[in-house]
Known about the structure:
The complex is a heterodimer. By secondary structure, chain A is mainly α. Chain A has twelve helices and no strands.
Amino acid sequence: MMPVGDRWNILKGGAAAAWPICLGYAPIGLAFGVLAQKAGLTPWEIGLMSLLVYAGSAQFIAVSMIESGAQAIPIILTTFTINLRHLLMSSSLAVHLQGLGRGWLSLYAYGVTDESFALNTARFRDREWDWRRALVLNHASNCAWIASTVIGGYGGQFIPAGAFGIDYALPAMFICLLVMQIRDSLHVAMAVLSGLLAVALSLLLPGNIYIVAASVTAATIGMFLRKRRAGIVESGESP
Amino acid sequence: MRTDYLLLVLGMGIVTYLPRWVPLIFLSHRRLPEWLKQWLDFIPVAVLSALILPGLVTAGEPRHLEAFHPALLVAIPTTIFAWKTRSLAGTVIAGMSLYWAAGRFFP
């Protein structure tokens, strides 16, 4: 049994670290709620989607499909392809969650989003960060998402569009977390490659499959380059 | 609540949850081969970059290149700020302020 003080520290630490995500989710969630309400969903229905799906871009697209009268199967298939990118994020997170029980892993899986993945991955490098705090961070973000979408569903754009530059909270967070992930020149090179590939593929391919395609390509090339570099060092040649 | 809506969001929930769950369950309980570790080591930088850059230089539906974007202009000082300070809080606040200011100057 964990002492109460430790539990409190974990809750406080995890929730406090979630603030950039909560700040970023607020305007997006409100905007989503407003759109969903216009598409004919009640606040309860909006809350249920945010709870069960919990994936921003897929929810936006689903609502626009609902509004245009699409059937369930195409909406579900679209959701699947949009959210396939989480496969990569969960694979990468598995490195930090080695040996954790399957129950906790199943709960953790629910909270894997672009944002929580980015923030927790950067945090896992800190000594004081662990899966418990990461789980709290996931669920604090989840609460912020559900709450802001439901509030938006009551018909309120409570934050005026563009106020305080709040639309830039998540892009700025992603930029900083990317910078913090970079540990050597090969990381820089593969980040540049992945970004450029993503731009090119986003112009060619529909949907957001470009995220998976660009990341997998860059990571694979990076892996081979690292191997070659290690091989050169081992064989005694100058790199 | 309509039953067809309930089934729709349940379906959406399941297909979203599975890609989040499968790798965690299958990769967290085995020794990962060295090549996979090396590959996964590049995933965070690759994914983050692929998430960020298209949003900064493309716009519209269907997407097209749009280089002169306030979001891109703001990204440059934001990146430098992040590099120098390594502060998440500072970078988020700096990025938001710059974006807000950019909106004033280039409406």
